[in-house]
Amino acid sequence: MATVESINPFPNDVRNAFQEYITSDTYINRDRIQPQHWQRIHVFVDNPTLKPDNQTDANIKYQAIHHFELIDRKLYRQPDAHHPDPRYVVPENEIFDVIATEHLKLLHAGRNKVWPVIERKYHGIKRADVEWVIKRCKNCTLNRPVTTKAPLEPIVSERAFERVQADLIDMRHEPSSQYKWILHIKDHFGKYSQLYTLKSKESKPIAQAFAQFIMAFLPLKIVQCDNSKEFKGAFFILLRKYGIRIINRKPRSSQTQGLVEQANGVVEAKIRAWKMDNSSTEWADGLVEITLAINTQKHLTINCAPVELLFRDCSTYIDWLDSQKRKDPAIRVLQEDSNEALIYALDSEPELMVTTQSNVLANPQVLTIGHSRVDIDIHSQSHSQVIMRISPKSGSEINIRITPPIRNSPEQWFDIETNIQASIKVESSITTTTATTATAIQSTDLVI
Asked: Where are the domains of the chain?
């Protein structure tokens, strides 16, 4: 039968150290009674008719009669509002033994367990005395769990999108239409963020959003996320398909998930600012602007903007984020070639613009082709289809096919109001031709 070596929990050196502790000049205990006073209190309680010799004895006698009593020839503190039972007045030389005894009775319980017992049964001991003794118990020291954690190792990423951290932002308190969650993916190397709206936090929509991230930035090496169930199932299958390693951490941990956890606060602040600027609660409509704002602002860790680190230039994004340039339609779009004319000023050759309206006269459209001019007026009670082919090299040739609206009855075939009239006028330096046609049949081809 195996035996366990006995250990003395409180050696003599601990007892001697405690006596030095309570007798030091820095020790303060208002409930402690000095040994000479303890003897005088005992005498006055045992003989109340004894007259005091001086004023000090008179004060001690008053306290002895009104606050103390003898039980079995031992001095006790009388009950009061906070302590309904009499409490034994512990002499100074017995404090260590009383604390050690109660500690062993409770099988080496901690301070929070031992102190209520000491406070209820004894007078003259304070909480710090109990804590001092228990901390120096040899058995408790050997059985105390190790609370020192291993030093944290910094994560080092050598290239962009080698490691990303993913987390969900809960927006159920203020949903945008059907969107209640935001998937936040942040690159550990370049601090680049991507935000995706989600209707739920199930693994399937998360996997679909992450597939879009893979499509844009290629498969990663490591994905770091918490161990919640939404990052299992379909999401885990997607990562295994592309050979991506997943590392699960404790949720809402500032040490392991600190990068994306802090970035979530930035995203929420940007969302609040966007809602105030646009007077709207539909934050899903502004998620693109929010993402651009986060990726174009300077990051303290890399000392530049994430897009500048990844793409070497972020000027176009900054210009786009200018609210005045974005909201003012009069400001022109910058062209790739500064010598080229504006987009809306370029001529289309050839191009035909025809407007056909039901029950109203269509506005005449004008097309200029070289030295020719074509005016077309179409009058119809319903929509018509016009197909034109123009060959400007040999004069002006126009082929028109007009399809009248569908007729529901034979009587409508002879209804004049449903007919289509087309007037075509071609002017050139050589000849001028005008043709007008009215049709009540199903289709007509007119060649000029």
From this structure: 12-143, 163-311
